[in-house]
## 1
Amino acid sequence: MEANNSLFPKSICLYLSLISAVIGSTQPQPQPQPWPLQFHSILVMNSSKGLLQIDDLWYDFPNGRNFNIIQNQLGRKLYSLEWNNGTSYYYTLDSDKVCSSKHDPVGILRPNWLDGANYLGQKNKDGFLCNVWEKADIVWYYEDVITKRPVYWSFNTGTIAHFMTFEVGRVLEDPNWQAPVYCFEEANQQKKPALELPATLNMMRQVQSIPIPTVL
Ligand SMILES: *[C@@H]1O[C@H](CO)[C@@H](O)[C@H](O)[C@H]1NC(C)=O
Ligand SMILES: *[C@@H]1O[C@H](CO)[C@@H](O)[C@H](O)[C@H]1NC(C)=O
């Protein structure tokens, strides 16, 4: 701005820049959209070792349950079913009839599990302009700036996941949430090698157990 510009005397310029500085410093950072109470997503995942998986994610908070149905490329299909009472079942539905269950008091992710995440600015990902947050050095979360839908997340295990669908309100019918009978036969379980939970699901348990700040 030129000093001798009569339309914008110096004092007004100073005033305007002060106002914009104040507005700029108080502008709230974007907040991640809370998860819808119920949704279905198909995710394409790639582990750090290059293992490709498709994850059918059924998030159902009102019913206190969360399902990851994971198809390994040309391999096993694994069912990871978590209940909010802390019980989780991890099984196959093939002839191997393997199941492991465990109790973990943290329960399933809350819709506001991203509260308190660190905002890292905007980045382009998979062709979408995204706001990016990081939580607890465990998960990096990319959300479409305009639609607020999740686009991509990555984990410190090296696993990355692309959200291919995001169907808000879609619920998996009840019978599909029934763990198979061999999950409840203890003698049967002891004879079989326990299934290894994918590292990423263990990471999400850690995210779940982080206390969320109640008031900011
Ligand atoms: C999966 O990840 C590995 C390791 O980062 C990479 O080499 C490979 O190209 C990825 N595969 C796909 C299909 O993106
Ligand atoms: C939690 O709920 C599931 C599903 O209703 C049930 O199978 C499981 O036994 C429950 N676990 C506990 C510890 O109550």
## 2
Amino acid sequence: MERRGRLSLAWRIGFAIVLVESVVLAVLGLIYTQRFAAAVDARVESQALLPGRLFNTGVLRFEAIADPETMQQVVGEQLVAGLIVSTAGVILLADHPAMVGRDVADVGLFDREALLSAAAAPSVQQREKSIIALTPIYATGQTTPQFFSYVEMDTSAALAEKTANLGLFITGSVGTLLATSFIIFLSFRLLVLRRLSRSVDALGRFEGGDLSSRVPVYRSRDEVFALEKGINSMAARVERTVAELSASLNRTEQTLEATVKVLANAVAIRDLYTEAHQRRVAELAVRIGERLSLSDDELKGLRVSAFLHDIGKIAVPVEILTKPKRLTGVEFSIIQNHPLVAYDILRDVPFPWPVARIIRQHHERLDGSGYPDGISGDAILVEARILAVADVVEAMTSDRPYRPGLGMDRALEEIKSKRCVAYDSRVVDACIAICSDPDFEFAERGSSITA
Ligand SMILES: [Fe+2]
């Protein structure tokens, strides 16, 4: 459970880090931006109240309020309006002469109640795009104000400053979150995805036949580690099983080989010629099969079939087999029965190849003129077609009780003359190519069957 949980735990921790970081950044952002905004507002308010304080300390004269340039030097570029108002609400001085002598309520700046409520101390009113500061002004030795300084300042620049600061903080926060997420993603990629890719590569090699392929194990004791170990354990077991099966198959093939040898020897005891004939036909048939690109498995079946192809002749009396004269019709019929006898002997043997059928067909001909079934064309197995040609060539080149060997040229002439009629053209061409090679010759008749 511990191994299975580590990576999931790490992933959850990474997710929690990003989540906590998001919350912390949001809270910090809220506090910081609020404080920043408050500081900006305080600065603006201080600027707005500054003219009143200067009046009270005598630094500014009343007349200065009517001079926009002087007021702008005091409050900065943001000045909208500067007035001196009496406690009765009459405008005494203004940067706009038309406003002098008018009631503050009439010009819509603020009402008299607001003016009186602000009498005790400086006050500030926030409006949508500006700030208004009212500062009571005292005459020397007086405890109640005689005038008010009214200053209105544009707050667009302050608002833009606060917005820019908020944007900067959001950009920084998002960048920090992205960087953290990327670091977590990169760590996950290094720790997990790269290892998974190596596992997939190893599995691909294993699937491609490299049974010794293993996954490099990274000892992290997490889920991927369990997967890597599992794959290697499974691969080792499969490799071991395949080795055992291969050894078992080898033993089976050796047993099969020995069985074929025993059967061939049984033929040899009665008829040495037939035993040697089968061995030499097998030699030529396999070479033809190789030239026709038969698979290794098909070649094994062809070789075994060739070794046993005349085993049915054990049912033919020796006198007929070794008769030095021309055979009678009856004797020839007995001889022609040998493919069926072989089939009956071998049909229940569980060869991994169709040996019994190949042998039954080895005297069939492409045009249907053969025996015992008279089948033709593609109905004849390719191994039987090869066997037919190798059989004829070996038989014609060998000495028989009733005639000496006819020679390779006559044998090749025979199969060439019946190419495409009795014999498969590709098989004939391959046989001619092999037997025309000056280096080709059949093995000696005394050679062992297992050679
Ligand atoms: Fe035969």
